[in-house]
Amino acid sequence: MKPTEPLSFNITLTIKSECIDEYLQALAEVLPAARTEKTCVYLNVGQSVDDPRVFVLSEHWQDRDDFINRVLATPHYQKYTAISQGLYAEPRRVVQLRTPSGVEGG
């Protein structure tokens, strides 16, 4: 069995003002299921204090391949993606993260 590679990233989404409630409903449906995935370490969501249209999702997964090949194909992620993509006011911004050399933790 090959060792697993973790995956950490932040996604910044700007949602159309008139679609915030619809987006929050989609989040409320996907988060509980996603957080129970066996390789989910954390999945946190924050909403900007300065601009309520802006949401930041911070995610860390134990196994990159599992996330890409299995988790993203689950019905709850597929439904969330189908709903949320039509609500973006701007293209989403994804930043993949790693622990810098010489810094402990992760």
Descriptive key words:
106 residues, alpha+beta, Alpha-Beta Plaits, four-stranded antiparallel sheet, 4 strands
How would the global form be characterised?
Answer: globular
SSE order in H/E notation?
Answer: EHEEHHE
In CATH terms, what is the fold-level topology? Alpha-Beta Plaits
* CATH architecture heading: 2-Layer Sandwich
Rounded mean pLDDT score: 93
Number of helices: 3
Sheet with most strands: strand arrangement:
2-3-1-4
Q: What's the CATH class, please?
A: Alpha Beta
Radius of gyration: 15 Å
Described by strand count, sense and barrel closure, the largest sheet is: 4 strands, antiparallel
Low-pLDDT segments, ≥5 res: none
Number of strands: 4
Could you estimate the helical fraction of the residues in percent? 25-40%
Quote the distance from N terminus to C terminus: 23 Å
Proportion of beta-strand residues? 25-35%
What is the count of distinct domains? 1
Give your account of this protein's structure.
With 106 residues, the protein is of the alpha+beta class. It has one domain: 2-Layer Sandwich (Alpha-Beta Plaits). The protein is built from 3 helices and 4 strands; from the N terminus they run E-H-E-E-H-H-E. The chain has helices at 20-35, 64-69, 75-84; strands spanning 7-14, 40-47, 54-61, 93-97. The chain starts with 6 loop residues before the first strand and ends in a 9-residue tail after the last strand. 8% of the residues are buried.
